[in-house]
Design goal:
The complex is a heterodimer of chains A (about 100) and B (about 375).
Chain A (H helix, E strand, L loop, with lengths): L6 H8 L5 E2 H11 L6 H16 L3 E8 L10 E7 L1 H13 L6
Antiparallel strand pairs in A: 1-3, 2-3
Helix pairs in contact in A: 2-3
Chain B lengths: L2 H36 L4 H4 L3 E2 L5 E2 L1 H5 L3 H30 L3 H8 L2 H28 L2 H9 L1 H11 L7 H25 L6 H26 L4 H25 L14 H28 L1 H8 L2 H13 L1 H5 L6 H23 L14
The chains are: A alpha+beta (about 100), B mainly alpha (about 375).
């Protein structure tokens, strides 16, 4: 439903069915958004996740250091899930979002 | 290194980014005062309404038959409109360079979910910027700055009540100290000279518009920033503010007022440079202001950005000289300079309190749910 919508909308929908790690979110969503399938695009999506967690919309769990370089070597890989507020926002978006053609 | 230590470092980094954005906002806001006041002497603004050497009101708006109060307000409206349009245009370069034009388009169409908040934020911002110009014109630039400084009080109350963001006791203390510092900075001129104005009520309304406008803008924008990118949010806010002023200015024109008679003056090189400087400094001030909110919250972001009062004094002293910037005479010099220095020291203490706050307080801006 949120395909082609602002990236933060899509992140909320993407983690709706269960917690997802930074690399899973970035690697999947970068392919959906034109011009994002590169390091810069993935970094922007990762920053959106950080902002959503900072706002209390996503919860953080299972934090590990990316020692093997699966995403960004030496940086944290964080598993994100929807918080109570995130659930509320997602319901709100489902009622108000204007679906886009993809 | 232990994973908890890495996580703590990550939270510290996030807090530092938020505070850095707030400080950069204050710097850009302070810089904005120099071209923001210098533009008053260009034909673009000055020819609309000014006082000659004898203190007689002159200009196109006076010649048209308007009173000085209405002419002053319309001049402020025109200048605020130019400011908003310059910012909206320059932000296309910013977001184009960041590769975010696609995200701008995706967000723009979501009127019902988020864009409506940026429409409200744009109108609140329009009210605040025009209010500060009106307060500066009808009372004094010092009063305008003090009135503007009250906005974090409204912003803090609303961010706690409406956005449910948490603020620690140390955070509250830092906000109070920063506000006290900013107000002290500009109090000298009010204590020594009072205010000589033919219509102080309009100036007070302008001051109220600035405080309420910026306070509510931060909160409304904070709500939408939960779900959108800051760069996109502030650009939408400026696009809507620019559209708002274009509509207002055309309504004024349709009423027969020659509000656009000086618009050709914008292409005069010095004026054009000043408009560019106003646009860049104000746009980047907002870029950093909006970027600080998701990192440290609306209350802290607004409080640290209120350092603009200190930065404004410093930059005006650099560009205009201390006497012109602070507006003192031989008799009032020590009082005004004393208040200014005391204000700067209090601002530094407030900043220190905020910067040394435990990063875990800002790890998440809301209680876990």
């Amino acid at each position: 439903m949120m395909e082609g919508c602002p990236i933060k909308f899509r992140i909320l929908e993407f983690v709706e069915d269960g917690p997802k790690r930074t690399d899973e979110i970035c690697n999947a969503l970068c392919k959906e958004y034109p011009g994002h399938d590169n390091d810069y695009g993935k970094a922007k999506i990762k920053y959106d996740c950080i902002e959503l967690a900072s706002a209390g919309i996503l919860n953080e769990s299972e934090i590990v250091v990316d020692e093997e370089g699966v995403f960004q070597k030496g940086k944290l890989l964080i598993k994100y899930s929807l918080s109570g507020l995130g659930q509320e926002y997602l319901e709100y978006l489902k009622q108000t979002v204007k679906p886009q053609k993809v | 290194m232990d994973i908890n230590e890495i996580r703590a470092m990550d939270h510290e980094k996030k807090k530092k980014i938020g505070l850095l954005m707030g400080i950069l906002c204050a710097l850009y806001w302070g810089v904005w005062y120099a071209p923001g006041y210098a533009i008053y002497v260009t034909p673009l603004i000055n020819d609309l309404y000014y006082f000659d050497d004898m203190g007689t009101p002159m200009g196109i708006l006076i010649d048209y038959g308007l009173g000085t109060d209405v002419a002053g307000v319309l001049q402020a409206v025109f200048l605020t409109g130019i400011n908003a349009i310059a910012c909206a245009v320059l932000l296309f370069i910013w977001n184009g360079g960041l590769g975010k034009m696609g995200e701008l388009k995706r967000t723009l169409v979501q009127v019902k979910s988020v864009t409506k908040y940026y429409i409200i934020a744009g109108i609140c911002g329009a009210c605040a910027v025009s209010g500060t110009y009106i307060a500066a014109l009808f009372l004094s630039p010092g009063f305008a700055a003090i009135a503007g400084l009250l906005y974090p009080i409204i912003g803090t109350i609303m961010s706690v009540l409406y956005l449910k963001q948490k603020v620690s006791k140390r955070g509250y203390l830092a906000i109070i100290v920063l506000l006290a510092g900013g107000i002290t900075l500009y109090s000298g001129s009010l204590v020594t000279g009072g205010v000589d104005s033919p219509n102080p009520l309009i100036g007070c309304i302008g001051g109220l518009m600035a405080a309420v406008g910026w306070g509510f803008e931060g909160v409304v924008a904070g709500k939408a920033l939960d779900l959108t990118e800051p760069d996109i949010g502030l650009h939408l806010r400026f696009i809507f503010e620019a559209l708002f002023w274009i509509i207002v200015l055309f309504i004024i024109l349709c009423c027969g007022v020659p509000i656009f008679d000086t618009i050709g003056g914008i292409f005069e090189p010095t004026t054009f440079l000043l408009v560019l400087m106003i646009g860049f400094s104000f746009a980047w001030c907002y870029v950093t202001w909006y970027k600080s909110f998701p990192m440290i919250g609306v209350a802290r972001g607004q409080a640290i950005a209120s350092l603009y009062a200190a930065c404004g004094v410093i930059f005006l002293c650099i560009f205009l000289g201390p006497a012109n910037a602070l507006g003192y005479t031989d008799e009032s010099m020590w009082t005004i300079v004393g208040f200014t220095l005391a204000g700067l020291v209090i601002c530094l203490i407030g900043s220190f309190l905020l910067v040394t706050e435990d990063a875990e307080n800002t790890a998440s801006l809301r209680e876990a749910s």
